[in-house]
Structures are given as structure tokens and as C-alpha cells.
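Sample pair:
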Amino acid sequence: QVQLVESGGGLVQAGGSLRLSCAASGSTSRINAMAWYRQVRGKQRELVASIRRGGTTTYADAVKGRFTISRDNAKNTVSLQMNSLKPEDTAVYYCNAHTAWGVNEYDYWGQGTQVTVAS
């Protein structure tokens, strides 16, 4: 079991910045990748950015150059620095931990944190 606790959401004006953080606890040795997803009501959850244990990152095209994902393996935390925010970034942001052991894989999710960007 892995527990994820997010923090850092809120309301910001367009062009502003926010930093999201996620702390993992439990069976963290099984985590091989962590990510941030976001979801707008009525739409599918979408990947924003991911980072593997070794540091390889991926970003959605919509956030490239504006968002930066980082990870502290020793502290089992992942952060998302969001700059130049746009109203279309408004969503509930979820922390994700992808675990694998043997042939098993499982995804864990945080409770979500609201990010609202006012125009």
C-alpha cells in the first residue's frame, strides 16, 4: 500500500505560479514512477507530467516549457512547479504513484487538489 498526500493547490491569476507537492508513504520502495494528472469535470483525467525513479521526465504538450516536475527519492516526494498559468490549466490535480513488484503493477492516487486560474 502507498499513501499519497497532496498540497499546494489554490486560486491564482493568469500568468501566475503555483507549486504542488505530493508526499508518499507506505511501500515506497515499489514506486518506479510518479506523476501528476489533472481532470476537469466531465472530461477524462489526463497526464500532465511524469518522472521515473531515474529522473526521466515526460510532459503533456500543453504544459511543456511552463511546468516542471521534480522528485526527491530520499524523501519520497514529487513536486510540480507551474509557471505562466492559464485559465485552461484549471482542474483538479492528482498525484499518482506507479508501483511494480514482480509481474504486478498498481497505480495509487492522491485525493486531488484544486487549481483555479482566473483570467
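The mean pLDDT is 96.
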